[in-house]
Design brief:
The chain has 469 residues and is α/β, with parallel strands linked by helices. Helix content is 38%, strand content 12%. The longest helix has 22 residues.
Length: 469
């Protein structure tokens, strides 16, 4: 579905063209930093380059999934051991985020996604903190969008998970939200897009030439809608998107005798995805239940967070997100330590992107996940077991395999990856990264950009698409 030709769209495209035209000539402030939008464009040119789309329902664990998606990298790929340049792109770039109802209502998950992305400085860290590539990121912050998706399943009544995530979807122990609502001026960094999530997702697929990784950490409604709406176009692509989803269980579920929450919320959507013929990777409960946030893990993440310019405040946010999750899991499921489900799927996607890129050195890389190729179907009829993911381990159905099922994960590698992401964010957000020969960003002279909807308004009040919560 093409975007309407409005003045705003034309201005945005003109700004986009100017950005790409000048990117190669723009002075580089820090050789270890490259603009994600530059990398996204170049990754499409480079064989094996990947773009990432996260469809989520934040959610405490979704917050860390987004953190890992925005700042994560395989050790030595886009991290301190590797210099990232425009000619040598990182194998994975966060290209878009969409929301779905699940852990909370669609209004709350959209608001929470915006909170998280503002907190982790998606697209705006170097602009706000005055460090490297500020011109590039000043452009980028005008184009960061969260796309709101389905507020209910395809055929069923909506359900939420307030008993785990609280009234806001990301509660702190004191009953408030673990992350604050962004201030009006800060909301310009992460705006809510006009297009429905399924439409925006397919637009990203097209822009990536089909070479997009979609990670779904909530119910699969948006992904199923995208597949159903654009099935012909997807089948015509030379490369087709790869989908990683956190969901399902081989044995016991967590919201029913045999059903996992994400799949049980919308089993019909899961059926559409599993029957799509697209490359699928399923990260089930049996794997995510091994990613336990022990006190030692929390202490390590907190230590990395203290490197951030916000210091103790940033560390407290991380601790608040994990502590509430720990208490609710102990109360509801009697876990000694809480599992962090959703980032596991993002980590699997990051490893996949690295392994399939031109920069992959098989002698230097040991994957964290073990997969088996399986036939998986979703129970949709039984009132007792609807949402169950049935794994045809012995091939008795005679139906073709349709998903790579994760069986095991290197838990230490996973936590190390999340710790590196937090440290990388802290390093790039630090004012110490500002080169001495580069002028500071003058906030007093901020003016509305050509793509702002409310032209002529003061920069401190020109928040667009403020979403209800």
């Amino acid at each position: 579905m093409p975007r309407k030709r409005t003045r705003e769209v034309e201005a945005e495209e003109a700004a986009d063209a100017r950005h790409w035209d000048g990117a190669a000539r723009r002075p580089r402030a820090n050789a270890d930093v490259a603009c994600p939008r530059c990398l996204l464009r170049n990754s499409q040119r480079a064989r094996g380059g990947k773009a990432l789309w996260v469809d989520c329902d934040p959610g405490h664990d979704d917050a860390f999934a987004l953190y890992l998606a925005a700042w994560g990298a395989v050790d030595g790929a886009g991290g301190k051991k590797k210099t990232v340049t425009e000619d040598d792109p990182t194998p994975l770039v966060l290209a878009g985020v969409s929301t779905v109802a699940g852990n909370q209502t669609i209004e709350k998950t959209t608001a929470n996604a915006r909170r998280v992305l503002d907190w982790i400085d998606w697209g705006g860290a170097r602009d706000r903190y005055g460090s490297a590539e500020w011109e590039c990121h000043r452009f980028m912050t005008e184009h960061c969008r969260v796309y709101e998706g389905a507020g209910q399943p395809l055929l069923r009544e909506a359900r939420i998970c307030e008993e785990i995530h609280g009234e806001s979807g990301m509660d702190a122990v004191d009953g408030t939200s673990a992350l604050p609502e962004p201030e009006a001026r800060e909301k310009r960094y992460v705006k809510v897009g006009d297009e429905p999530a399924a439409v925006a997702m397919f637009e990203a697929v097209k822009k990536a030439g089909g070479d997009l990784i979609i990670v779904a950490t909530g119910p699969l409604t948006n992904v199923a809608l995208m597949i159903s709406m654009y099935r012909t176009e997807l089948n015509a692509l030379t490369k087709r998107p790869t989908i990683f989803f956190m969901g399902g269980a081989v044995g016991e579920g967590n919201t029913g005798a045999r059903a996992e929450f994400n799949v049980q919320c919308d089993p019909e959507a899961a059926h559409v995805v599993l029957e799509s013929g697209l490359p699928l990777y399923m990260i089930p409960l049996e794997v995510t239940h091994t990613a336990l946030a022990t006190p030692e893990v929390i202490a390590t993440l907190r230590e990395k967070a203290l490197l951030h310019p916000a210091g103790e405040e940033h560390a407290k946010r991380i601790e608040a997100l994990l502590t509430f999750f720990a208490q609710t899991y102990a109360r509801v499921f009697r876990f000694d330590h809480p599992p962090l489900h959703d980032p596991c799927a993002v980590w699997a996607a990051i490893e996949f992107a690295h392994a399939s890129s031109d920069h992959h050195d098989p002698n230097d890389f040991h994957p964290s996940f073990e997969y088996t190729l399986e036939r998986v179907d979703v129970e949709r009829a039984s009132a007792l077991t609807y949402g169950q993911t049935v794994v045809d381990r012995w091939r008795t159905s005679g139906r073709p395999v349709n998903v790579r099922l994760a069986r095991k994960m290197n838990v230490r590698a996973f936590w190390n990856a999340l710790a590196r992401a937090i440290a990388r964010h802290a390093a790039l957000a630090s004012p110490r990264a500002t080169p001495v020969d580069r002028p500071p960003v003058d906030r007093s002279s901020d003016r509305p950009r050509p793509t702002d909807r409310d032209r002529g308004h003061d920069a401190t009040t020109r928040d667009t698409h403020t979403h209800k919560t």
